[in-house]
Amino acid sequence: ALEKAVTEAQVTNVMAEIALAFIDYQEKAFAKAAATADGLLAKYPNNIILRTLKGDCLIQQKKFPEAVAEFEKILSIEPDVTKAYLYMGMAYAREGKDKARAKEFLQKYLSLDTKASDEWRDPASNALKALEKPEGAAGEQKLPESFGSIIR
Question: How far is the C-alpha of 1 from the C-alpha of 118, rounded, in Å?
């Protein structure tokens, strides 16, 4: 019975940590949420939800290369997670250094995730439109501030 209680408490503690990480994310405490995700990933390195949370937090903190690396890890664990391409495309787009790479990943996402809701597809399409416009052009579109967050 004691063994069961310990096991259940461990599960409860892990679930509480995960919940707190998502609360921190919602409260825009992105560094704190990423740190919690990191601690959990040390125990559960193949958890793609925790990796997505961490990667999204890194994007929000403008740590774009680290975010891209996180989403590349997700694809190495589970190649069918098409939203990783969306996140990588948005990271490259927001960083602004490699528009070609941003377009490549956004187009790949749109071509692979054809059944995604508009909540996910629209930001990718809008980001592509924004990337197509020359800087300073009349009617220049801005990149979407948010996109299909994993916690919406």
Answer: 49
- CB of 144 closer than 8 Å to CB of 126: yes
Helices (H) and strands (E) in the chain, counts: 7, 0
Choose between 148 and 95: higher pLDDT. 95
pLDDT in tens, 86-107: 999 999 999 989 999 999 999 9
d(CA 132, CA 13): 47
Rounded to two decimals, what is the model's pTM? 0.83
Contact 84, 75 (CB under 8 A): yes
Looking at residue 115, the DSSP 8-state letter turns out to be: T
Pairwise CA distance, residues 6 & 43, whole Å: 17
Tokens 């599960």, located at residue: 11
Say if CB 32 and CB 24 are below 8 A apart: yes
